[in-house]
Amino acid sequence: MFTGIIEEVGRVVAFAPASAAWSLQIAGAIVPADVKLGDSVAINGCCLTVTRFDAGNLWFDVLEETRRLTVFNELKSGSLVNLERSLKAESRMGGHFVSGHVDGLGRVDLFEPRGNDHYMRVTAPAGLGRYLVHKGSIALDGISLTVAEVDGDSFAVWLIPHTLAATNLREKKTGSGVNLEFDLLAKYVEKLLMARSS
């Protein structure tokens, strides 16, 4: 479980197919200094298991399905990625509950400065707009954000300068992919209501 509050932006060193899975190596300063083998780390909001580490690097195994269905299919050497270690029981809950299970790959439709802030509009996969609520929460590349507008399967968020500086969103542009995880509560409510109606 995560909060959507990014701890640091890492950089992809290598991402290539290996014998059993894709091997992802990420360079960082904060997260690699305090992990153990087998720890969970959210990479752009996708929960992965640390398979190896040293003072400045993390290694992960990535399934082909994960690579294909997430923004990982756009990663290359030098790409910036958002890093967050799993939530501790005594941690502050600064964002919202994020599971690290990506629901779909969104596409940036518009990303532009408006005054001191930035406006981003994203289209989610068809039909997933049912989980979007005005002023509700969404994890976008693992970042806990507030939904500012909803139009079917499209939504918008506003980004303060700190969010751009502290995350990988500063590299995004029109057409970029973003991992989407919708509010966990919405999915549970939907399942309960469907069970009750059937």
Describe the protein in words.
This protein has 198 residues and is mostly beta strands. It folds into two domains: 8-85, Elongation Factor Tu (Ef-tu), domain 3 (Beta Barrel), CATH 2.40.30; 104-197, Elongation Factor Tu (Ef-tu), domain 3, CATH 2.40.30.20. The protein is 13% helix and 41% strand. It contains three helices and 13 strands. It has helices spanning 64-69, 161-166, 184-197, and strands spanning 8-17, 22-27, 40-43, 46-54, 57-62, 80-85, 104-114, 117-123, 137-140, 143-146, 149-151, 154-159, 177-182. The strands form two sheets. The chain has a seven-stranded antiparallel beta sheet with strand order 10-9-13-7-8-12-11. A six-stranded antiparallel β-barrel has the order 1-2-5-4-3-6. A hairpin with a 2-residue loop joins strand 9 (137-140) and strand 10 (143-146). It is globular and about 45 Å long. The mean pLDDT is 94.
Helices and strands in order:
Layout lengths: L7 E10 L4 E6 L12 E4 L2 E9 L2 E6 L1 H6 L10 E6 L18 E11 L2 E7 L13 E4 L2 E4 L2 E3 L2 E6 L1 H6 L10 E6 L1 H14 L1
Antiparallel strand pairs: 1-2, 1-6, 2-5, 3-4, 3-6, 4-5, 7-8, 7-13, 8-12, 9-10, 9-13, 11-12
